[in-house]
Design a protein that fits this description.
heterodimer; A: Peroxisomal Thiolase, Chain A, domain 1; Peroxisomal Thiolase, Chain A, domain 1; twelve-stranded mixed β-sheet; two-stranded antiparallel sheet; B: alpha/beta; 2 domains; two-stranded antiparallel ribbon; 13 helices; about 35% helix; globular
Chain lengths: ~400, ~425
C-alpha cells in the first residue's frame, strides 16, 4: 500500500461529538462508560423494549451543527454521517468556513454501514402493514435504500468524486480504507472522507436481544476478558480524511497519521450448517497481510485496537489470532468497552481511538500487554460475524515525517 | 499493470437463466414483463414487473446453501455458479486467498427483512425466529459465494443502488490491477419485493405496463429483478491456465452528482464526468467507442439527461445507443450487471441489443437508437452506462481482448 495521509477526523459518538470531545472522554477513562451505558435510551420505547442497556448518543442534536433547515426528512443515520463528514472536512482543512480548499470533484466519500437504516425500513414496513402501502411517505422512502445516507452527505457537503457505500458488517469502515486508497491510487480523487456509521434502533436492539448476545440484567460486559457475558450496543459515526501525500503537502495540511497497511481475510466455518462464526485464522492472516503490505515486522507494532465487543467466543478467537500474528506480549486495547459495539461505525471509531493514542491520550482499557508511551504503529482490527476480518495499520504522523 | 479479462458469465433474469438463454431472448427482443406473482398487488394500480419466474434455488444450490440464503443471495449464488462453470476455472484455481468476491445490490436481502418485519408487526416479537435473524444483512451476499467456491480473499458488498453492478465491476477490476487479487467474482443481484415496489409506485416512477426508454411518451420504469455475475481474471492468471478471454474490462468512470437524492443533475455533470473518465481511462477517444448500452430507465428525467450527456460526449457522431430496460425492466442494483453481461456478449458477437417499445421520437432524446430490433455492427469497444439513486454515476468500458492500449501504471500518487 502506498501510505495515505490522515489529515482530519470527525465523529459522533456516545461519549462526545467531535474529535476533541472524544479525546477528553477517552482521557477521563472508563468511569465515563458507566455513564454512557446508564439510563433508558430514548430511541427504544419502554413498552416494547423493557430494561435495555445501550450507549445512545444522548445529547446529539444535528441542528447544532447543520442549522435548522433541510433536516426534516433525514433519518438518524443520515444526520450522524453528515455531522461527522462536516466535522472531518473542517478538521482537516479540506473545507474552511464552508468553502472547499480542494475542488469538490476531487473529494470522494467512502462510507460503511452494516444494517443501513433499519429505522426507515421499519417505519415504511409499519405503514405498509398496518395502514396502506399507498400511504408511504415519498420523502422518507428513499431512506430505506442503503446508500441514501451517503448520498445525502455528498449533497450536503458537495462531494463529487466517487461516492461508495461499503457493506461488510463490522469490517466495513476498515474496508472503506482500502476502497479509498484504491481510488486515490488510480487518481479518481485527491482526498476521501472515509469511515462509517450505524444508528441504534428498536429493531436492531431487539434483534441482538433475540440472539441472546447482549449483556443485560445481571450479565456483565467486559470486552476482551474471559468473564464477559455479552456485548453492549452503541451507535455513532466516524470519518477520517484520507489524502494523497501530494495533496496534503500541496495545501500544507497537518498529517496526523498515515494509513500504511491493509489486510483482509475470509475463512468459512467447518460445517455447512453454520452461518455465524469467528475465525482466528482470518484475524491472523489479515494482520500478517497488513504487515506485509506496510513492510513492517510484528515487533514494529505497538498497540492493537481490537474489535473485542464482549461476546466471549468472538473475543477469545480474536485474541488467538492477534497473538499468532504479533506474539503474546502485544498490547491489546478494547475501545468498545467505552462506547459499545457500533458495527459499521466501529472501524472508524477505532481508528479515531488510535489517533487519540498517537496524540498522547492514555490507551485504555487494555486487555493484555503494556502500551508504550509514544506509539508509532497501531493495528486497528475489525472482526465480522461470518468468518471475515480486516486489519489496518496506522503510523503516527511524526514517525511518518521522520521516515 | 495487468489487463483484466472477463472469462465467465452467469445470469438469472426474467429473460432466462444462463448467458445462452438470456442472450437469445435479448437478441430476439423478448419482454420479461408479466403480472407479479410474488406478492399481492391489489390496491397499487400497478401490477407488472420483470419478475424472475420459475427460479428454484435447489436447481443451483445445495440444500444447506438454500437454507441459509434469501432470494437475493440465491440469485447471486446461482449466477455465480454459472459464471465459474463458464470460465472453466477448476475448483483449485478459484479457491484460495487470491480470489475475492465483490457484489453489488440496492436492497440486499429485502425479502428476509420484509418477512422479519411482517412477523414482528403482525404476530409480535415472540414469533420472530432467532435462527432467521442472521440471514439478513447485505454483508452475506459475497460471503455465500466465497463459501461456495472456497474464495478466501476480500468479501465486500457495494450497495451503490442502481449503479451497483458497474461500481462492483470497476472496483473488482481495480483490485486485480493493483495486484490485490488474481480472480474476482463480481456483479450484482436484486430481488423484487413488495415494500420497495410500493415505494417506487409512491414516487410516481412506475409505468403502467411497459417501459419505453427514450420514447416521447415514456411513462416511467418497470421494476425488474435478477443477477448478473462475471468472473474477472488478471491477464497472467488467464494466460497461465490457457483461458480464452471473452472481453477485456476497460477503464471506468465513477462520479457523484451531489445534487438530489433521486433525480439526476439537470445537466448531468456527474454522468458526463463518468463517461469521459471511462473513455480516457481506457486509453481511447470518444470516436473509438462503437456502442453505448445506456441506463435508459424510461423515466422522463433520466432519459432526457442521459441523452444530453451522450450527445455532449460524442458530439455530432451518431454512436449507436440502446437501453435494455424495455425488455428487462429496471433490475435496480442488478441492472448494470445484467447490462454489463450483455456488453461482453455484444463485444463477442457484434450484436447490439434492441431498445424495445420505441414508437415516438423525442427531440429531447435525439439519439441513434437501436430501435425495436437488434442490429449488428462494429463492437470493439462498448460502454455500459449507469446512473443511480443518490446521484451515483458509473460507466465501464468493455473491449475485444487486446484492442485497448496496455493499461498505464497506477499513479503512485503522481501530481
Amino acid at each position: 500500500m502506498r501510505p495515505c495521509a490522515i489529515t482530519g477526523v470527525g465523529l459522533v459518538s456516545p461519549i462526545g461529538v467531535g474529535y476533541d470531545a472524544f479525546c477528553r472522554a477517552l482521557a477521563a477513562g472508563t468511569d465515563d462508560s458507566q455513564r454512557v451505558f446508564r439510563g433508558h435510551p430514548t430511541l427504544l420505547n419502554p413498552e416494547r423494549v423493557a430494561d435495555p442497556v445501550a450507549a445512545e448518543c444522548y445529547d446529539f442534536d444535528a441542528k447544532k451543527y447543520l442549522g435548522e433547515k433541510g433536516l426534516r426528512n433525514f433519518d438518524r443515520l443520515t444526520k450522524f454521517l453528515i455531522v461527522s463528514a462536516k466535522l472531518a472536512l473542517e478538521h482537516s482543512g479540506l473545507k474552511r468556513d464552508g468553502v472547499h480548499q480542494v475542488p469538490p470533484d476531487r473529494i470522494g466519500l467512502c462510507s460503511a454501514t452494516a444494517y443501513g437504516s433499519l429505522e426507515a425500513i421499519t417505519e415504511a414496513a409499519h405503514v405498509a402493514e398496518l395502514e396502506d402501502p399507498r400511504f408511504l411517505n415519498p420523502n422518507r422512502f428513499p431512506n430505506t435504500v442503503i446508500n441514501a445516507a451517503a448520498g445525502y452527505v455528498s449533497i450536503w457537503e458537495d462531494l463529487r468524486a466517487p461516492n461508495v457505500t461499503v457493506v461488510d458488517g463490522n469490517c466495513g469502515a476498515l474496508d472503506a480504507v482500502l476502497s479509498s486508497e484504491t481510488h486515490l491510487l488510480y487518481g479518481r480523487a485527491d482526498a476521501f472522507v472515509v469511515g462509517g456509521g450505524e444508528a441504534l434502533s428498536e429493531p436492531l436492539y431487539l434483534a441482538f436481544r433475540k440472539l441472546d448476545v447482549l449483556a443485560e440484567g445481571s450479565r456483565i460486559s467486559v470486552p476482551g476478558r474471559r468473564e464477559s457475558q455479552g456485548m453492549l450496543l452503541g451507535e455513532g459515526a466516524a470519518y477520517l480524511c484520507l489524502e494523497t501525500p501530494q495533496s496534503a503537502h500541496r495545501r500544507g495540511a497537518n498529517v496526523r497519521a498515515e494509513v500504511v497497511g491493509y489486510g483482509n481475510a475470509f475463512e468459512p466455518p467447518d460445517s455447512e450448517a453454520v452461518l455465524v462464526h469467528v475465525s482466528a485464522l482470518s484475524v491472523d492472516r489479515a494482520i500478517r497481510m497488513a504487515l506485509a503490505d506496510a513492510g513492517l515486522r510484528a515487533q514494529d507494532i505497538d498497540i492493537v485496537a481490537s474489535a473485542a465487543s464482549g461476546i466471549p467466543h468472538f473475543d477469545a478467537a480474536e485474541l488467538v489470532g492477534v497473538e499468532a500474528a504479533l506474539g503474546p506480549h502485544i498490547a491489546v486495547a478494547a475501545p468498545k468497552a467505552i462506547f459499545g459495539e457500533t458495527f459499521g461505525a466501529a472501524g472508524g471509531l477505532a481508528m479515531a481511538c488510535a489517533l487519540a493514542w498517537f496524540d498522547g491520550v492514555r490507551v485504555a482499557p487494555l486487555v493484555t500487554g503494556k502500551a508504550p508511551a509514544n506509539p508509532r504503529h497501531i493495528v486497528v482490527l475489525a472482526v465480522g460475524y461470518y468468518g471475515n476480518a480486516t486489519a489496518v495499520i496506522l503510523r503516527h504522523g511524526e514517525a511518518a515525517r521522520a521516515s | 499493470m495487468s489487463r483484466v479479462y472477463v472469462t465467465g458469465l452467469g445470469v438469472v433474469s426474467s429473460l432466462g437463466f444462463g448467458r445462452g438463454a438470456y442472450w437469445k431472448s435479448v437478441v430476439e427482443g423478448r419482454s420479461g414483463f408479466a403480472p407479479i406473482e410474488g406478492f399481492d398487488t391489489s390496491g397499487f394500480d400497478r401490477s407488472v414487473a420483470g419478475e424472475v419466474k420459475g427460479f428454484n434455488a435447489r436447481d443451483f444450490l445445495t440444500a444447506a446453501e438454500a437454507r441459509r440464503t434469501g432470494r437475493c443471495s440465491a440469485f447471486a449464488l446461482a449466477a455465480a455458479r454459472m459464471a465459474v462453470e463458464d470460465s472453466g476455472l477448476l475448483p483449485r484455481e478459484v479457491a484460495g486467498e487470491r480470489t475475492s468476491v465483490i457484489i453489488g445490490t440496492t436492497m440486499g436481502e429485502a425479502d428476509v427483512i420484509g418477512e422479519l418485519e411482517q412477523t414482528w408487526i403482525r404476530r409480535g416479537l415472540g414469533a420472530v425466529s432467532p435462527s432467521r435473524l442472521p440471514l439478513y444483512g447485505s454483508t452475506l451476499l459475497p460471503i455465500h459465494l466465497a463459501r461456495a467456491f472456497g474464495a478466501r480473499g476480500m468479501v465486500q458488498t457495494l450497495p451503490a443502488a442502481c449503479a451497483a453492478g458497474n461500481y462492483s465491476i470497476a472496483f473488482a477490476a481495480d483490485l486485480i490491477r493493483s495486484g490485490r487479487a488474481d480472480v474476482v467474482i463480481t456483479g450484482a443481484s436484486e430481488l423484487l419485493q413488495k415494500l420497495q415496489f410500493a415505494g417506487f409506485v409512491r414516487l410516481g416512477a412506475v409505468a403502467p405496463d411497459r417501459c419505453q426508454p427514450f420514447d416521447k411518451n415514456r411513462k416511467g420504469l418497470i421494476i425488474g429483478e435478477g443477477a448478473g455475475i462475471m468472473v474477472l481474471e488478471s491477464e497472467a492468471h488467464a494466460v497461465r491456465r490457457n483461458a480464452t478471454p471473452m472481453a477485456e474490462v476497460g477503464g471506468s468512470g465513477l462520479a457523484c452528482d451531489a445534487h438530489h437524492i433521486t433525480r439526476p443533475h439537470p445537466e448531468g455533470t456527474g454522468s458526463l464526468l463518468a463517461m469521459r473518465e471511462a473513455i480516457s481511462r481506457s486509453g481511447v477517444t470518444p470516436d473509438e467507442i462503437d456502442f453505448v448500452n445506456a441506463h435508459g430507465t424510461g423515466t422522463h428525467a433520466n432519459d432526457k439527461v442521459e441523452s444530453l450527456v451522450i450527445r455532449e460526449v460524442f458530439g455530432d457522431r451518431p454512436v449507436p445507443v440502446s437501453s435494455m430496460k424495455g425488455m428487462l425492466g429496471h433490475c435496480m442494483g442488478a441492472a448494470s450487471a445484467l447490462e454489463a453481461v450483455a456488453c461482453v456478449l455484444t463485444v463477442q458477437t457484434g450484436i447490439y441489443p434492441p431498445t424495445m417499445s420505441y414508437e415516438t421520437p423525442d427531440p429531447e432524446c435525439a439519439l441513434n437508437l437501436v430501435a425495436n430490433r437488434s442490429a449488428t455492427g462494429k463492437a470493439e469497444i462498448v460502454l455500459n452506462n449507469s446512473l443511480a439513486f443518490g446521484g451515483y454515476d458509473a460507466v465501464v468500458a468493455f473491449a475485444k481482448p487486446g484492442r485497448l492500449p496496455y493499461p498505464a501504471p497506477a499513479s503512485s500518487f503522481s501530481q
